[in-house]
Specification:
This protein is of the alpha/beta class. The chain has one domain: Rossmann fold (3-Layer(aba) Sandwich). 45% of the residues lie in helices and 16% in strands. It has 16 helices and ten strands. The strands form two sheets. Strands 1-2-5-3-6-7-8-9 form an eight-stranded mixed β-sheet, with helices on both faces. Strand 6, helix 4 and strand 7 form a beta-alpha-beta unit. Helix 3 crosses helix 4.
Amino acid sequence: MKRSLSILLIKRALLWIVLAWLSIPAYAQVGSLTYGWQKVDGINLFYREGGPRDAPTLVFLHGNPSSSIMYEKVMEQLIATSHLHVIAMDYPSFGYSDAPDRSRYTYTFDNLARTITQFLAARGIEQYGLYMQDYGVPIGFRLIVNAPGALSFLIVQNGVIHLDGFPAAQDKNGELRKHWRNRNLELDKRRAKYRLGLPYVNATSYAEEDDGANPDAMLVMVESAKRPGVSDARDDLWFDYGSNVARYPVWQDALKRLKVPLLVIWGSHDDFFTTPGALAYLRDAPQAEIHIIDSTHFATLDKPGAVTSLVTDFLDRNGLLMRVRAANTR
């Protein structure tokens, strides 16, 4: 009798363990990524990649001043729960990628887009969806305009193609617009002083972080920008940002013609690219799904679970992936 009771109790305990495991949200489990450098036109571009190569591909384009590390957790969570191939690279001078001297590499958005196009070709990626944030948006829209047939779906997060969500650029006579017309070297110096003055990540500096970045992401951001020549390269890119604003109408027209599934995720605590920028996408793409979430400019660092859930649900409902359910239904 006692033996039978003990066996029954053990079985019940095992059952509760299994039920508890099944109740864990899918995004609490993670898959593993691989890392490497792809040589493109003599430049070693660092990348993170995961999931089966024969699955639908999602290309992540990072923002400034971060790198592909901002997508690490979301990428891991996606490949753990979905039949999806994910890849994210660091642009030249960002993250772990090479930082070629300005004398042999022109730091403009046109050139970054060319480099990323070559990277995708070198990795054998011809059809893909894009996840674009901040600087990733103007790079991504250049890819879209140049090869609209390569795009399967689009995800935008805190990145604009409308002045609605870009308060600092709305005044044509404001500092930014003037700088983009005639480069203000004093502005360059202020930005460089701030960038180069950032301390090594420690308890004090991390306590002041309010964008949701983890210490690893902060360290890569801070230290990669202090390499020789990188600060000047970043100023070149910021000066060239004016070329993006001039192309907003072109990109808006391109979006109207695309008719692909579009997901817009926006961290509401972003004072630089504000929430009207998210809603503005509806003018060009009425099919867009807009989600304003309680997060920051770097939502993938601050709320990776929430972002993963939104992305997975969006792709699933649009028939863009096959969810991996077998492991969770045994």
